[in-house]
Amino acid sequence: MIVVLGGLFVIADRVAVGFAEDEAADRLKTNEGLASKPDVSIKGFPFLTQVAGGELDEVEVGIKDYDADTSGTTGSVTGRAPSKIRIENLTAEMRGVAFSGDYSSAKASSATGTATVSYAELLKAAKAEPVDVASGVTAQVVGLSDGGNGKIKVKVEATVLGTKLPSPVSVLSSVSVKGDVVVVHADSLPNLGVQLAEDKARLITDFEQKIDGLPGGIKLDKVEAADKGVDIEVKGSNVSLVG
């Protein structure tokens, strides 16, 4: 009999946690204006005991695509900055999730997570009309890719005295986070065959991308260039899961 009752409790517990995960996913989708329902996984067992205590040990949230705000983006490159930037595979682990009695709100004491910004998305922050960098010389960034060892390879296309260089010139750049801004800074200046003033060259090579309005108030923590884009680590405290 004890075994049977234990089995029934496990079944009831799993049914309850499944319902709670689905409800949380629906609320998160609505609150964040997501195009599709996120994945929500409530960790720990038993779930019902956690509910009775008013706090969940850990909740994992996965959002495939998230359009973050870029309002206030600044860059050394001229041109209009995008108002949104697509964040891929945003995953956050939220710990110590306290919730209200009617489940209308839930807040985590802390959260950590990862995400990726593709090079195509990041390029939008640098993409612009050609810029005059010297007498008779114009240039613009035409591509971003993995440069290895945590660096971004920035491809610069230039026209000198009316003649376009036969192929783009590449420079390796460091990427870092300052507050809610991703900063790309060239380690060296591009060799376009003419002498360039550093401030002029950096009008092309250096740029910034603000990433704001992430779910629940989580913030950028670290960034690193990777194979398909810039890998981001995020963190936060008193993070709202719903409500």
From TrEMBL:
Pfam annotation, one family: LmeA
InterPro entries in alphabetical order: DUF2993
Protein name as catalogued: DUF2993 domain-containing protein
Source lineage: Bacteria, Bacillati, Actinomycetota, Actinomycetes, Kitasatosporales
